[in-house]
Automatic annotation (TrEMBL):
Entry keyword annotation includes Membrane: no
InterPro entries assigned to the protein according to its UniProt record, in alphabetical order: PH-like_dom_sf, PID1, PID1_PTB, PTB/PI_dom
Protein species of origin: Merops nubicus (Northern carmine bee-eater)
Subunit structure: Found in a complex with PID1/PCLI1, LRP1 and CUBNI. Interacts with LRP1 and CUBN.
Function according to Swiss-Prot or TrEMBL: Increases proliferation of preadipocytes without affecting adipocytic differentiation.
GO cellular component, as recorded: cytoplasm
Database matches in PANTHER family: PTB-CONTAINING, CUBILIN AND LRP1-INTERACTING PROTEIN
Localization per Swiss-Prot or TrEMBL: Cytoplasm
Name of the protein in its database record: PTB-containing, cubilin and LRP1-interacting protein
Domain PID: 72-132
Region listing for Disordered, in residue ranges: 139-159
Listed Pfam families: PID_2
CDD domains associated with the record: PTB_P-CLI1
Keywords, alphabetical: Cytoplasm, Phosphoprotein
Length: 159
């Protein structure tokens, strides 16, 4: 269980170490200003090959209100080591708009601990590896692409 901090649009196409710092600080400030007291976990993040599910929970942290689905192949970067809080896990996602243009959004969640945030980063990297391997096997990714070239496009920086 995590506390979803929200999302913010980000710019750039090169996602390297530190690229989520500015968006995470913005989300952290909004989150800390909005709360009067510490909110309990309000979401459940489930990372699987091909998809990541963010189940939003009710105020009691129980029943699911709704769910956001993220395609693993459209996640450009993830990290679990932020200066503002080591408990934050963030990912950059390529959102496709109705007019087929796209935008890059940084999503962030606060975990119970730094270790939990790092576990999510490792789970995301494993999901990406499985997704990429399957897409390559199915011929959806050309065989002449080396896995190293593609793995540079998706980077996990967990500190």
């Amino acid at each position: 269980q995590v506390t979803y901090l929200g999302k913010v649009s980000t710019t750039g196409m090169q996602f390297l170490s530190g690229c989520t710092e500015k968006p995470v600080i913005e989300l952290w400030k909004k989150h800390t200003l909005a709360r009067e007291d510490i909110y309990p976990a309000n979401a459940l993040l489930e990372i699987r090959p091909f998809q990541v599910w963010l189940h939003h929970l009710d105020l009691k942290g129980e029943a699911m209100v709704h769910m956001d689905t993220f395609q693993v192949a459209r996640i450009a970067y993830c990290t679990a080591d932020h200066n503002v809080s080591p408990n934050i896990f963030a990912w950059i996602y390529r959102e496709i708009n109705d007019d087929l243009s796209y935008q890059m959004d940084c999503h962030a969640v606060e975990c119970e601990s730094k270790l939990e945030a790092k576990k999510l980063a490792h789970a995301m990297m494993e999901a990406f590896k499985k997704t990429f391997h399957s897409m390559k096997s199915d011929g959806r990714i050309h065989r002449n692409s080396s896995s190293e070239e593609v793995s540079h496009e998706f980077a996990s920086d967990d500190g």
